[in-house]
Design a protein that fits this description.
2 copies of one chain form a homodimer.
Chain A lengths: L3 H8 L3 H8 L7 H14 L5 H8 L4 E6 L10 H16 L3 E5 L6 H8 L3 E6 L5 H8 L4 E3 L9 E4 L1 H14 L5 E5 L5 H16 L9 E3 L5 H12 L7 E4 L2 H13 L9 E3 L16 E3 L2 H16 L7 E4 L2 E3 L9
Chain B binds a DNA duplex through helix 2 and helix 4.
DNA sequence: AATTCTTTCGAAAACCTTTTCGTGAAATCC
DNA sequence: GGATTTCACGAAAAGGTTTTCGAAAGAATT
């Protein structure tokens, strides 16, 4: 394997000079720069990243911390979408993305061992001692769903989204609008519930506690279970705003099994706009989260933090109502 | 930050000795070993991985190569499941997992820059020049869906699975069984089609070309489109075996939109057993791929390859038929 | 008592970059 | 034409670990 010293020898310069052109410093003449670049190209020289990291004290690695908390993780469309956009952005700046698991020695230590330059905490349990140790350390972090102290947070405008959902249902004539809330230990769960209440208030509708049930997790089974409870009410709702699409699919299943027709007897609105939302029957009305934008801004924010620039603590991205077939005007 | 020299000084030994206990070599007395370990623990010493990598020429990093080829990628339940199991296994052995994107400089070069010890090619386009360069290099690879030369391949027994699907439908009395095949450029697409044909042959049913349509991608839309074509046939099939669950959901949607009832008028069998399969309406009969086992064996195989042990070129894991509500006896 | 063998440890080289600071030459200024 | 600045580059240190090989001391063997 050819190293920087070989290149230097071939070009008749010192390693310092080669290093400078490789990191395009200005203090080297155009002529030698071209000459060196040509040689580098010809012999296919690849800098040793370990040596580089050792010297610069930067690993050019960004850690992804996540655990399958609340049953959301990489398998969830939202997170994989955000992660994809995040990855694309940081890669364009020369960073690579590495998974950090908390197993055995804890997140913080793992980050230190790998010497990551920053970390993206995707989804995790804030009650986890180990996670808090990481967030409290001086490693630069960024997150999209766990609010903690002044860790920058980039996420959807949950309140506004929920508001749009309720308005949509109200416009269709619904009055008995239920809400299947997410776990209220999560910020998304809380805020979406808030938006729902605000929507009702706006429409002059009373807040009926019996129409709100809290799901244990962000998954289909929870939606199914919650809907079951709603259907046992003396007077069932005519519409349900569900905290996420996955749960909404469970709701759809439940309604169907009761021989009712979704989008006719009962309207359903989800949240996320997972890919499947458009492809199930009936296609799901939902709030689209702008995963691409969130991931990109998350990346930019983290990079800024890594450069010790100041950043906003909270960036909120609007959602968009996507009307499909699971909602309809009440008869 | 305390380094190995500080530890050595504190323990009154040389760095060599400290290094040896840290990598538990035998040639150091039990007494000093304990003494050093105690100090390491007390001061929370963390070895510098860059220096380590530089010295050992191993990065302890395993690359994940994937592109959103054929619309399958991290968002696909199969791959995220396999990846999760893979990750768990290699992490337990001290490796971390890093994403490798082919953008800009190509997979091979990116792997070389990061100096990965091995790579898991998750899903990618084998016609991609850059990917072939990687697979042809002397970097140790392993894969679950792209057969190429002697790169070890661990995956489901597609033929057996398809056979089970067809047998199941035959047992329910179906005779006109259609198949929505995956892209035949993929090994899964080919083998599942093979299994389907074998199943028909076994049951003494003729192979009817008009009952087989090839999907463009492994997604819901493709399933939807294919089913549309099948329903335009003069005599529609009574059962459809679909190459994957995602497409099967598209099929379900299509059938429903034609005011037919899935699991009554037309039976549907998927492949994968994605998480949602059990939670949609009707719950999907499908072939479960053993993602955990595949991921684990993939990891073990790669590690062996990295240690220059010989491994089997092809390891096939059985699938399991999961009967739910989308299939029923024909009237 | 002399020799050999083991055990335990250390000195120092090696791994490959980056970066600081100094130097000489050329260009610019009064 | 002398003083000053700018430019282009290099010598060498620094970064933290692993590993080889040799040395010393103690144990075992003749």
């Amino acid at each position: 394997m050819v190293d920087i010293r070989d290149i230097a020898k071939m070009a008749g310069v010192s390693t310092a000079t080669v290093s400078k052109v490789l990191n395009n410093y200005s203090e080297v003449s155009e002529a030698t720069k071209i000459r060196i670049l040509k040689i580098v190209e010809e012999v296919g020289y690849i800098p040793n990243s370990s040596a580089r990291a050792l010297s610069t004290k930067r690993s050019w690695l960004i850690g992804i911390v996540y655990s399958e908390h609340l049953h959301i993780g990489l398998e969830h469309n939202y997170f994989s979408g955000v992660l994809e956009a995040f990855k694309r952005k940081v890669e364009s700046l020369g960073y690579d993305v590495v998974f950090i698991s908390g197993k055995d020695i804890g997140y913080l230590k793992r980050c230190q061992v790998r010497n990551v330059d920053g970390v993206f905490v995707v989804t995790a349990d804030i009650t986890d001692e180990g996670l808090r140790a990481l967030l409290d350390s001086d490693i630069k972090c960024v997150t999209t769903d766990v609010p903690y102290k002044s860790i920058p947070l980039v996420y959807s405008d949950n309140r506004q989204g929920s508001l749009l959902a309720v308005r949509h249902l109200v416009e269709l004539g619904h009055r008995r609008i239920a809400h299947i809330a997410g776990p209220l230990s999560s910020i998304a769960g809380q805020e979406r519930l808030d938006g729902y209440r605000q929507g009702l208030a706006e429409a002059g509708l009373p807040y009926d506690e019996s129409l709100v049930v809290e799901a244990g997790e962000y998954d289909a089974q929870s939606g199914y279970d919650c809907m079951n409870r709603l259907l046992q009410l003396p007077q069932a709702p005519t519409a349900v705003f569900v905290v996420c699409d996955l749960s909404a699919l469970g709701v759809v299943r439940c309604i169907s099994e009761h021989n009712l027709v979704v989008g006719k007897d009962i309207s359903v609105v989800g949240f996320d706009d997972i890919e499947l939302a458009a492809h199930v029957h009936p296609a799901l009305t939902t709030l689209r989260q702008d995963r691409k934008t969130i991931g990109k801004i998350l990346a930019e924010t983290l990079i800024k933090r890594m450069n010790n620039e100041t950043v906003e603590e909270k960036i909120v991205i609007p959602t968009k109502l996507i009307v499909r077939d699971s909602t309809s005007r009440i008869d």
